TrEMBL record:
It comes from Dendrobium catenatum. The gene is AMP1. One of its GO terms (molecular function) is carboxypeptidase activity. Signal peptide: none annotated. Residues 155-236 form the PA domain. This is Putative glutamate carboxypeptidase 2.
């Protein structure tokens, strides 16, 4: 019997990589300005009603506003304006931080290494009632921020949630991860750690998908905004950097001509991945899983109702993956 768990909450589809060129400073001021805490205490309570929370969330999520974009400075101005109009002393400070954007992505799948390859379009489709249909063109292509540039071709291995214990279980089952491409699902650990664990196990690339069991994936035909689940082509994007802040300035501020360490150095420490990776929708992830044979995965590695039987591989399903990044200080 398959493990039935409640699907998790819908994640925002618009890409929001970590880091940001503009930061609105106000928390620090709470301790600097000679105002009594009770003023801010009551101010915070007065600002955080359901109605205002809903209004601010709506305003901030109406458009994609990836770090470093014009839309993001509009969002920063909104926050500044909101705080200022509540009489909270606030200002905007600019930082020059390392940011990454996708230049090229491709992924194709064949049922074995000599069968014809079928490319995935890697597009999040617009659907009826899609509240973001009008701004779809502003949404960056699906990618993992700070992912490694590169091309990989290999047999696919299924690694459940990509945790340390999942790779240990693969090793125990004598499944060869080394030199192959890992497919793992979102939902238990940080995506940067999934890619890292795949790299440490010897994988040449990692694919991280949202399983319909965890995120809905269109089960029952209902998804955001009519239900809280992701649509079948919805992709969770985000960072794969495993540290905090700007990777090239660990421990100091990214201002002016400050000293910076090289990207290769960050990769060497393991904080940025050394293998390429891509995020995938539930629909595309399932298409790959259907091509994997070998041992049947354990019950708690299986999908939800209607999913195919998940197996461990490697292969014969075979993927070609390419990811090209633009990564620089902005
Ligand atoms: C805010 O909304 C939540 C969820 O609908 C509800 O449980 C809560 O009672 C509301 N709070 C107020 C103060 O209206
Ligand atoms: C590979 O796939 C092709 C097309 O589906 C099939 O004709 C061929 O027999 C397969 N080869 C192997 C070794 O399974
Ligand atoms: C593991 O798979 C890789 C790539 O398919 C292959 O080169 C390697 O020989 C395999 N290792 C073992 C122990 O089977």
């Amino acid at each position: 019997m398959k493990n039935q768990s409640q699907p998790r909450l819908f994640y925002r589809i618009a890409p929001v990589p970590a880091g940001g060129a503009i930061i609105v400073t106000f928390l620090l001021l709470f301790t600097i300005y000679p105002r009594s805490t009770s003023t801010y205490h009551s101010l915070f309570l007065s600002l955080s009603s359901n109605e205002t929370a809903a209004r601010h969330l709506f305003a901030l999520t109406r458009r994609p506003h990836v770090a470093g974009s014009d839309a993001n400075s509009v969002a920063a101005a909104y926050v500044l304006n909101t705080l200022s109009s509540a009489s909270i002393p606030s200002h905007i400070t600019s930082y020059n931080v390392l940011l990454s954007y996708p230049i090229h992505r491709s992924l194709s799948l064949s049922t074995n290494s000599s069968a014809p390859a079928i490319p995935f379009d890697l597009i999040q489709e617009i659907y009826p009632d899609d509240p973001y249909a009008a701004v779809a063109a502003d949404i960056l292509p699906t990618f993992h921020a700070y992912a490694h540039s590169g091309t990989a071709a290999g047999l696919v291995v299924y690694a459940n949630y990509g945790r340390v214990e999942d790779f240990a279980a693969l090793k125990e089952s004598a499944v060869n991860v080394s030199g192959n491409v890992v497919i793992a699902r979102y939902g238990e650990i940080y995506r940067g750690d999934i890619v890292r664990n795949a790299q440490l196990a010897g994988a040449i690339a990692a694919i991280v998908y949202s399983d319909a069991k965890d995120y809905g994936g269109g089960i029952g035909g209902k998804w955001f905004p009519n239900d809280r689940w992701m649509p079948p082509s919805g992709v969770q994007v985000g960072s794969t950097y495993r540290g905090l802040g700007d990777p090239t300035t660990p421990g100091w501020a990214s201002v002016g001509d400050c000293e910076r360490i090289g990207i290769e150095e960050v990769v060497a420490t393991g904080l940025m991945p050394g293998i390429p990776s891509l995020p995938l929708s539930s629909r595309d992830g399932e298409a790959i899983l259907r091509t994997i044979r070998g041992k049947v995965a354990a019950d708690d590695w299986q999908g939800g109702e209607g999913a195919p039987v998940y197996r461990l591989g490697p292969g014969p399903g075979f993927v070609h993956l390419t990811y090209l990044v633009s990564i620089e200080v902005n």
